[in-house]
Amino acid sequence: MRHWPLFDLRITTPNLQLHMPSFKELDELAERAAEGVHAEGFMPFVIPWTEAEPEERAKATVLYHFKSWGTWKPEDWTANFVVVRDGQVVGTQEVAAVDFAVTREVVTGSWLGHRFQGQGIGTEMRKAALHLAFEGLGARWARTVAFEDNLPSLGVTRKLGYREDGVQVDNRKGEAVPSRRFRMAREDWKPEEGYTITGLEPCLPHLGAR
Q: What PROSITE patterns does this protein's entry cite (predicted)?
């Protein structure tokens, strides 16, 4: 699409491809949400959207992507990429920014279908997000946050070399729960072989990166 080139943006890693979903891929991502995103009795999200019935989780996934497209502005955007491995959608990686042209800072978030967790995919898709931020957009900072009991997310964050950036308290289902904030500076980012970006140049004005 000439007027919306973000659908041609691709981040390729040794085992994954990240891109804006087609309608078919968005439907497949919704199926991952319906199948389940985390174990029973655990809630990694501030908004407990995964407690809904499977069909409602699927519909919420689709509508969330539609909303992010419809409210997109260069000074306030959220890019929700599908994560594809061996031709199958396994989860989603988010990269977002507010006033990126000034702050040069992005925030990342993600989720994987429960049956695809524990296979190194989460680490590789976060590396892809950081590659886009630092190598593609020229970001100065990347931030992320996770509940203190979200050990898988904290493990990925610490493994990649983020620095702790304080503690915040969030309302999780009516309970005050501490979260850990993390920040990575550009100079701490260590790019790896096998990560490439295509289709970025036409997207830069839409990302506040030109």
A: GNAT
- Determine the length of the chain: 210
Average pLDDT, stretch 66-72?
97
CA angle 42, 48, 50 (to 5 degrees): 75
Are 91 and 125 spatial neighbours (Cβ–Cβ below 8 Å)?
Answer: yes
**Predicted pLDDT at 80:** 98
Structural domains in the chain, CATH included, are 5-138+192-207 (3.40.630.30)
Q: Which stretch of DSSP H or E encloses residue 193?
A: none
Q: Is 115 exposed, middle or buried (0-12, 13-18, 19+ CB in 10 A)?
A: exposed
Contact between residue 92 and residue 29 where contact means Cβ atoms under 8 Å apart: yes
Tell me what pLDDT residue 40 has.
86
